[in-house]
Amino acid sequence: MKVHYETAGDGEVVVLSNSIGSNLRMWDPQVKPLTDNGFRVVRYDTRGHGRSPVPPGPYSIADLGGDVVELLDTLGVESAHFVGLSLGGMTGAWLGQHAPERIRSLALTFTSVKPGNVDMWTGRAKQVRAEGMEQIAAGSIGRWFTPDWIAAHPELAAELRQMTATTPAEGYAACCEAIAGLDLTAGLAAISAPTLVISGADDAALPPSHGQAIAEAIPGARFEVLGHAAHLGSYEQAGKFTELVLEHLKGAR
């Protein structure tokens, strides 16, 4: 399926993959630093999100990974660096296992390969199909950011809350179904791409233990924990996050 995407810059391609309930705008803080350092940024809306098509669910992680492969084919890109956050990181872990020839390096951030909470995810899918996204959006900000950050950035928090509120309900629900029951643990040891794993010290949604388990299973992976960061640490600690990612990408050139 052809997803909506935007490109910026020239050089080696870095694909940025968004979290559930967001869109490619969540990567705004990273675009200029990456292009300034000689990378071509390709950010896209996961299927069911932003301006991408919303096919009826459920979706699978193979569907989401296949969309990235099709995107690379569309762009004529043989292989790319891949940075994914939350659901985007799950997509990256699938790609590292099932399309290794297309992946130059991986940054799996604020994510998990075995999220658990199956009933929560299936219940959330049912809820948004019945009630829409408003209640989910109201709760998402408290998961994405620490209270101190929300208090210091009320306008930006409101803008990001609206990003979730305007996510298509069916797309969100179908991605919930992709996460429910997901377990990519068995294939981690086969990932050969240079891998950076980042978790947030204050991430209640997917605590650092999830990231640590990924890093311990992937040969040679590096694990970092960002302090004062909840689930959307790419925004809350944009400077430190981007610095880690850039260091990783330059090392994988």
TrEMBL record:
EC number: 3.1.1.24
Ranges for domain AB hydrolase-1: 13-236
Top EC group: hydrolase
One of the record's GO molecular function terms: 3-oxoadipate enol-lactonase activity
Pfam families in UniProt: Abhydrolase_1
Alphabetized UniProt keyword annotations: Hydrolase
Top-level taxon: Bacteria
Protein name stated in the entry: 3-oxoadipate enol-lactonase
Gene (name only): pcaD
